[in-house]
Amino acid sequence: MADETLTSPRTGAHPAAATAAPSAGNSLTLTDLRKTYMTRGRPTFEAVKGIDMQIEPGELVALLGPSGCGKTTTLRMIAGLETVTGGDIRIGDRSIRDLPPGKRDVGVGFESYALYPPLNIRENLAYGLKARKVPDADARVDALAQRLEMTELLKLRPAGLSSGQKQRVALARALIRNPKVLVLDEPLSHLDASARQRVRRELKVLQREFGYTTIVVTHDQLEALSLADRLAVMDQGIIQQFGTPDEVFDDPANQFVADFVGEPKINLVEGVVERSGSGTTVRIGDGSVLQSRATTATPGATVMVGIRPQDCRAAEADAPGLHGEALVVEDLQEFTLVTLAVPGLPAPVVAQLPSGSPVGPGDRIGFSAAADRVYLFDQKDGTRIR
Ligand SMILES: Nc1ncnc2c1ncn2[C@@H]1O[C@H](COP(=O)(O)OP(=O)(O)OP(=O)(O)O)[C@@H](O)[C@H]1O
Asked: 180 in ligand 1 pocket by Cβ < 6 Å?
């Protein structure tokens, strides 16, 4: 059962002013969770291939990954909208895997999640509360609508809503019953830029206030970084890395994660290991050299070298670094992006330098990064070489 006792006894409102410390019973644990879609009794697609995640009470996790990697399927299994092929889902120490959606204590924020068409939004939001005889259901709807800036929507019917409005209603619907766990699929994607920022902030405040254990699917990295305590980066039905935004950004588990997380994108270039030991020297293109802190690379092996534009620093002509000719220089106020043609490399690389860096198109320049920010990956399977 959702904890309706959180409701303010004075106003009956959704407890905007109360604070709820996350209870230990609100952790969400996925153990070897699997989903194989079936058609006419035959397996057609293995969408989720064994996910293990322990999400702490009150924690907000962003699930990031390319289209088709299994994010929505994972959320739908947690919400009870999709059957589970294998593994378990627990809130606290209680398995919810075989419970119907209404008995799970999971608030579901999917835009497409059904609203009753004949009822207006106020009635839709209050419906479940009134059925459960929650006192002051209307006041609670009003307070939440105000916080999500959707008061003007309460009198409308679902069919009359734009997609941005539907998203706010979906969010309100997920929050109204004070669930233990919230699952939100792209909750802000259809809002315009300013509404998005405000609703994102409000969502974060509500999530903190009430201690909802939350998983949010988003395509938007900035959104993920600003909302999430931890990121789960997913590809091909598998969690590739689960960690704080800093851990994922600074210490990527593999080439996929390094490539997927970060804007502008990491530079990935081929290199040949010259020496390895207490550190590694890699030769790149015709005469460039980078030094990495990796200690287990094999001399002579071809590897993928990752260097983030944000980590690039100017390098003297005779110092290790990527050296070449600046093709494009973009001064973007906060920083300058330099696109550099490095002899022997098939594609240019990009460096993010301090704004106003004295570089112009056609200049011969070089840049490098600290050795612990030069990542090496196995050329065949993308695993990190440490
Ligand atoms: N009912 C179904 N039957 C068969 N395959 C399905 C079914 N639903 C989803 N899939 C497949 O499972 C894979 C994962 O789908 P899912 O919707 O979970 O991905 P996603 O990561 O949420 O993608 P997106 O970001 O595009 O929403 C996809 O390849 C999809 O085509």
From this structure: no
